[in-house]
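---------- Forwarded message ----------

FYI, see the PXMP4 record below. Original note from H. follows.
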Amino acid sequence: MDIILDPAYRSLLAILKGLRNGAVYGAKIRLPHAFVMTFLFRSGTLKDKLKWILDATRQHSTNLAKFVFIYKSLNYLFSWSEGKIREFHSPMSAFIGGYVVFGKRTSVNEQINMYLLSRILFGLTRLGMEKGYIKDPKIDTFPVFGAVVWAIVLWLFEYHPHTLQNSLRNSMTYLYHDSNNWTSIWDFLVWNTDKLW
């Protein structure tokens, strides 16, 4: 029997394929993001910028690969030890993997965790509505949601910027503070001279 189809090996192969997919996906997501953000907001030599891009990409790729490996391995181990899959296996495996891999404070891990937080808040709200814990509003609440999000983030940026993550603070500085200054038609219309690399 082909080893790929043999049930005895499928879980192990799925774990290894998850490790591979985590590495590939992490690189595909981080490389273009790091490239754009580095050349927009980081100062330093071209060599420094390229090193930072590659380091951030490696960290994202490696961390995602490690997390997928830990998560899938623990899920398999828990279901094997109990003889069946249970709903609590998934959050328990993810908690351990998240603690080990994404519990270390780095700029890449902060970005990944914040990205997930915003999406799980939406997901939990939808689940709460499905289960009847939250009443379905009779009006469109998305405009209020957008207004509150932007009101809070600009208040934090203008009066408590140290509380925001570096990449968000850099983006907002470019949008709201760097636009207050220019010295020529070139940096008014085309490019902020202080951001040239």
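H. also flagged this: DSSP finds seven helices and no strands in the chain.
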